[in-house]
Amino acid sequence: MLSVVIPTYNEKDSILQTIKDVTKSIPKGYAFEVIVVDDDSPDKTWKAVNEHKDERVRCIRRKKERGLGSAVLKGFSEAKGDYFLVMDADGQHDPGIIGRMLKQIKDNDFVIGSRFAKGGSAKNWSRQRLLFSKAAAIPAKSLLDAKVHDPMSGFFMMQRKVFEENQEGVKGKGFKILLELLVFSEKKRRVKVSEVPYKFRPRKHGESKLGLKVLIDYAAMLARLSLHGRVTRFLSVGLLGVFVNLGVLYLLTEQAGMYYLLSGLIAIEVAIIHNFILNNSWTWRHRKKKQGFMKRLFSFNIVSLAGMTINIAALWFFTDIIGLWYLASQAIGIALGAALNYIWNDLWTFKSK
Ligand code: GDD
Ligand code: MN
Prior knowledge:
Blueprint: E1 2-8, H1 15-25, E2 32-38, H2 45-51, E3 57-61, H3 68-78, E4 83-86, H4 98-105, E5 110-114, H5 127-142, E6 156-159, H6 160-166, H7 177-185, E7 193-197, H8 212-228, H9 230-255, H10 260-283, H11 293-321, H12 326-349
Parallel strand pairs: 1-2, 1-4, 2-3, 5-7
Antiparallel strand pairs: 4-6, 5-6
């Protein structure tokens, strides 16, 4: 059975049409339910749904809470299906692809209705909104192992059991519930995702609720998800590498009697290799990597050197030119070097197939 969850806020002019379209798009004979989760809309969307007499359709009216993400979670908690489908009420998501999504969900954990996969589009958008949306997706993609073109889609299907296994800690604050579910699901294992392209349509009635608050929530979510996952792993590896570096330097100098500058060089390379191995097998563990092993190792070495160069350059620049205390400049240098390393390794060294 399929459970269709539709979050609504002031969608009385769209919701019934959307329910009709969805009902028509589900293959004949396929069992389904539609759960509208409405946050006590002033326009009485809940009333319109309740007056629509169809035992497969029901409305949950939340009086105390608000928010798209948490509404979706509420819908999931009441849903009975093996598969969950999330979709907007305003007609912007094309129900015509539901059949294809249903076919693909059998072999996937998630199937995403995608504006940015080949064949999809968001044509009615201004160039500005399109650019903005694509830019906002970059950090989101860097948190994921699976290759996803549209990780912020509000139109997706997921397996009930994947939700049940991974829901712990999922908060559903803001609009980007899909991204949060993906990141949490990837904590345990590689997640299988497929995308079905569709054309994002213009809204006919009412207005978008996407505003500044949504953006702030999104930034907060990125920060929280980073700390939950890859960024924390990356930083821990780096920290561990510092101790490896110091340990090798000490051993080679004190025990092997090497000249300290030579042991220093060897210590740096040993630390780089150590970091590479851990990042390769742990930080970006579930990603299907495009580059071969040697290429990755080479790329990792190059960016480590580039990072040190930036570090030194920043030490000089902020101390000599800006006039900061040299320890503060070094801290900035380390942060810049780490950021460069993370971004390069994500986009290049460990990029996905
Ligand atoms: N229950 C509830 N509570 N529903 C809400 C709330 C809320 O606070 N805010 C918005 N919704 C419902 C809307 O009524 C609509 O059905 C759906 O969530 C999407 O809201 P829109 O305001 O239409 O968002 P959008 O079109 O700008 O963006 C949507 O599409 C994008 C592309 O797929 C969202 O789904 C984005 O997350 C998504 O990236
Ligand atoms: Mn919309």
